[in-house]
Design brief:
Elements: E1 5-6, E2 15-16, E3 26-34, E4 37-45, E5 69-78, E6 84-89, E7 92-96, E8 104-109, E9 116-119, E10 125-128, E11 133-137, E12 145-148, E13 157-163, E14 169-174, E15 180-185, E16 193-197, E17 204-209, E18 215-219, E19 222-226, E20 234-237
Antiparallel strand pairs: 1-2, 3-4, 5-6, 6-7, 7-8, 9-10, 10-11, 11-12, 13-14, 14-15, 15-16, 17-18, 18-19, 19-20
């Protein structure tokens, strides 16, 4: 950490630039003497972990029970260098306050496997478990509510969910015939209206919001984009040809793929 100290004396503005490498938050004492007068102050240096340029070259072991791990429901969400949430596709949601060095199970424990986890803020979040309900929290999963809803199509289960506000959200649903739907809600998830319907074996693999109006739906044969909060969807990648299962696609922040 590099610190710069300045004198409190307006008549003799002097400064010093000592350099110190500190592993944790450190308090430095600064003392300035002019004639017979001595002034003393303290400076606190907060050390923020620096993220690597390529985060995939750094691995962090997770002490999470194997029963709480399933690839289909894995979600990792960070809001800054310290605070993050994790779902491994099991029945619990985990939280870190120290950049992922350690993880603690939140109070959320489901009877069913978590299919999706999204967080609007470090306190407000949602998770889908399949069926005709989802869960939401306003305090980082210390407490949570179950929201029962009327599905957009008869017998459809919620598989993916994201909310822009307390009332406006978009979800992905699958019915008993393995048909998939994207749907919109304006009442906090109580009712849903279908805005896109998949055909044949097209499934919704992921649902990503990059702004208040822009969303991407990664489907089994391409990528859909909505620029009006999920009311309309257009294809932007891959339609007309199959995407090998081994290929990966990253949706970056903004409106581009």
């Amino acid at each position: 950490a590099r610190t710069r100290y300045a004198s409190h004396f307006d008549t003799d503005p002097t400064s010093a630039t000592p350099v110190a490498v500190v592993p944790t938050t450190t308090v430095f004492t600064v003392e300035t003497t002019v004639g017979l007068c001595t002034a003393q102050d303290s400076v606190t240096v907060n050390v923020v972990p620096q993220m690597p340029e390529d985060p995939w070259i750094t691995t962090y072991p997770l002490a999470i029970p194997f029963a709480d791990q399933d690839q289909d429901g894995m979600r990792l969400i960070f809001f800054d260098a310290f605070r993050g949430f994790l779902s491994m596709g099991g029945k619990r949601i985990y939280r870190t306050l120290n950049s992922g060095d350690s993880w603690q199970a939140t109070n959320f424990l489901s009877e069913y496997r978590i299919l999706d986890l999204t967080m609007r803020s470090p306190t407000t979040g949602y998770c889908a478990l399949g069926g005709s309900c989802f869960y939401r929290t306003a305090d980082g999963w210390n407490t949570f509510d179950q929201v029962n809803f009327v599905p957009p199509e008869s017998g459809a289960d919620m598989v993916r969910v994201t909310f822009e506000s307390d009332s406006a959200g978009v979800g992905a649903f699958k019915d008993v015939f393995e048909d998939w739907f994207l749907a919109l809600t304006s009442d906090g998830g109580v009712t849903w209206q279908t805005t896109w319907t998949g055909s044949g074996s097209i499934r919704v693999n992921d649902l990503v919001r990059t702004s208040s109006d822009t969303l991407f739906a990664v489907v089994s044969n391409g990528v859909l984009r909505s620029t009006d909060g999920g009311q309309q969807w257009t294809s932007v990648l891959g339609f007309g040809w199959a995407i090998p299962a081994s290929e990966r696609y990253l949706v970056r922040s903004g409106s581009d793929v």
